[in-house]
Amino acid sequence: MKSPAIRIFTAILLISCAVHYSFGQSTNPQPAKITVDLARKKAPMKPVWAWFGYDEPNYTYMKDGKKLLTEIAALSEGPKYVRAHSLLVTGDGEAALKWGSTNAYTEDVHGNPIYNWKIIDSIFDTYVKRGMKPFAQIGFMPQALSTHPEPYKHHWKPGDNYDLIMTGWAYPPKDYNKWGELVYQWVKHSVERYGKAEVESWYWEVWNEPAYYFKGTREEFFKLYDYAAAGLKRALPTAKIGGMNVAGTKSKKSQEYLNEFIQHCLTGTNYATGKTGSPLELLSFHAKGEPKLINGVVLMDPAPQLRDIATGFRIAASYPETKNLPLIIGESDPEGCAACGMATNPENAYRNGTMYSSYTAATFARKYELEDQYGINFKGAVSWSFEFENQPWFYGFRDLATNGVDKPVLNVFRMFGKMSGDRVAVQSNRMYSLKTVMDSSIRGPQTDIGALASKDNETAAVMIWNYHDEDKQGPAEAVNLVIEHVPAKLVTMTHYRIDSNHSNSYEVWKKMGSPQSPSKTQIATLEKAGQLETMGKDQKLTVKENQLSININLPRQGVSLIKLDW
Question: Active site at which residues (predicted)?
């Protein structure tokens, strides 16, 4: 049923330029005030969100993996980048949690290399056919090259100690020349299969979180990197490589490691060539939040994630040689373990619903603010969130879809995909300052009602969220959005929404009785509910004195995208 505000829309429009929507009831008598100035450009609206990653590479070419990648590729124009672990791990290609394999490298009885690109090709073919780009991870160690080849395959499950995954794949090579030759053969094969121009458009990196996932010294990691980079450059001198995807960037230990890595690449002796320095064409690090369960309620904590990002940006900005390098947050998430569901980790219960989607909107806006503050070349932030094949429905994994059904968080990325051109100035009287969020997260008595806005030649978009760290639903609050310097007399407004009743397959699934074996009809209903929905039909609005005033009611954990076209 349409609200009274919608029914009297036409009459109001004749009197003023305000557009009124209602959703729920606002408990705050004073509306949040958001002002967007389309004439004040801040920076290009770069698609830093268009990066995704996951532990289990073999999910890539499976049924639901292909479906989700097709949807990710369709989020917007332009490439989406994909990062996956275990691309060089030995095995039969059978997928498992926190495990994957390609059998790219084995040896015969005489120790001669045997290269097999079949599974890696299946992975990269899936990306390239969809216009996606690998953020290709050179790792981990094939069993035949590992200095500690046994035990090799782990059998981890949620609830197990994380250290159980640290088997033979995590060790240095017994022969660095063979390691470098493996990389050379892989890149050479990629050029032959996909073409020089295509592979030049990829990014390559060595290993993952070497302080934890590499059972060698720092010097051994630098040696590992040098030989990999030398092999890559021998196959394709114009290929782009970097690293080092250190975790916990805000910690002193991680900062020391990252600085030593940069200094090695700039001025150190190259282990593979004997020359000074090693190729460094991108810089990457990780950033994670730290949610907790307090009195049965999840309390999110974005401050550690943002401090990690700020530290990585600051370190990059401190070297003239790295200040302008592409900076990629190799994993940027609310917490660390994607495969740890809420049954074993109840603090992860936020993942199925609107807490995850509103957190994503609120934190990505702050990532853009940090880019502005440090003046660096922010290229992308990898959301380490994909899908888990043949797992229980809505198990609470950190994923974008469950059994082929999209979760609310994927719809935030659909919103981002509708934002283009330049970021423009936004002011909100209810948006927590960047400093406050970095110091103490979003814990005050009021929610964070903020916005991110963009303007292109014939369109503008404003993303608005109502977020708080405490995972509780709440009544709608009134938001007055004023958009200044609209360069048209007549615009079409589309209002997209994620909340309990829109773009939310999880709520629909719960109303079905939370079935673990839904029928085909139920699955079709869930698939439809997982798509991005609008609040009513498009509206034609008359712009007066280059300004629009739009009133909406936005519930707690809700996200709206107001899109204007002219």
Answer: 209 (proton donor)
Mean per-residue pLDDT of the chain: 94
**401: helix, coil or strand?**
strand
DSSP code at position 340: -
pLDDT tens profile 3-53: 433 333 333 333 333 333 232 344 566 899 999 999 999 999 999 999 999
Note the pLDDT tens digit of each residue in 54-68.
Answer: 999 999 999 999 999
H or E element, residue 263:
helix 252-267
Domain 55-352+373-389 is found in CATH 3.20.20.80: yes
111: which residues sit within 8 A by CB, 6+ positions away? none
User: How far is residue 297's CA from residue 470's CA, in Å, rounded to a whole number?
Assistant: 7
Residue 209 annotated to the active site:
yes
- Catalytic residue from among 209, 347, 387, 477: 209
Length of the chain: 566
Does the 4-44+418-565 domain belong in CATH 3.40.250.10? no
Parallel/antiparallel/unpaired status of strands 539-542 and 459-467: unpaired
Query: What backbone phi and psi angles, to 5 degrees, belong to 63?
Result: -55, -60
pLDDT, tens digit, 9 for 90 and up, residues 336-349: 999 999 999 999 99
Identify each DSSP E strand in 105-261 by its residue range: 105-107, 113-115, 133-138, 203-206, 240-246
Peptide bond between residue 140 and the one before it cis (omega within 30 degrees of 0) = yes
β-pair type (32-44, 422-428): antiparallel
Q: What are the structural domain ranges in the chain?
A: 4-44+418-565, 55-352+373-389
